[in-house]
Amino acid sequence: MEKFVRQTLLYDFYGELLTDHQRNIYEDKVINDMSYSELADIYGISRQGIHDQVKRIDNILEKYESKLQLIEKFEGMKNKVEDIIRLSNELKSGDFTTDREKLIDTIILRSNELYEDF
After folding, report:
1. What is the dihedral of CA 37, 65, 9, 82, to 10 degrees?
2. Do the Cβ atoms of 34 and 41 come closer than 8 Å?
3. Beta-carbon count within 10 A of 69 CB
């Protein structure tokens, strides 16, 4: 997964667990794409200090994900929903290569997996 996408997902899921100061720095650097120099001026610390903060926050967010696995669960559920949509469209179009019953069974299976994930 691209680093920026990973960082934004981590922030979306776990950003509220950060302090206000950490959130502000991380938003400015990652989301608003501000430079280390700009942030150093704003926050009154060195560029290296900002760099270290961002790296520390990345590690904090990754630690939350390793324990809670919300992004992993989200990605799995998203893939199952996409699969259900694809199978349903195939079934609806009547232009399917597998038999109809197998498509329906797979849709039911994926739906049950989603239900169990909650």
Report:
1. 160
2. no
3. 12
Q: Which regions of the chain does DSSP assign to beta strands (E)?
A: none
The three-class DSSP label of residue 101 is: helix
Residue 87 and residue 110 in contact, taking contact as beta carbons nearer than 8 Å = yes
Structure tokens that stand for 87 in this block: 């199978």
Please state, in angstroms and rounded to a whole number, the distance separating the CA atoms of residues 72 and 13: 11
- CA dihedral over 35, 41, 47, 50, signed as positive or negative: negative
pTM for the full predicted model: 0.81
Hunting for tokens 């501000």 — which residue is that? Answer: 34
Both tokens of residue 7? 């960082």
The predicted-structure confidence for 34-70, as pLDDT tens digits, reads as follows 999 999 999 999 999 999 999 999 999 999 999 999 9
Residue 7 makes CB contacts below 8 A (sequence gap 6+) with 30, 58, 61
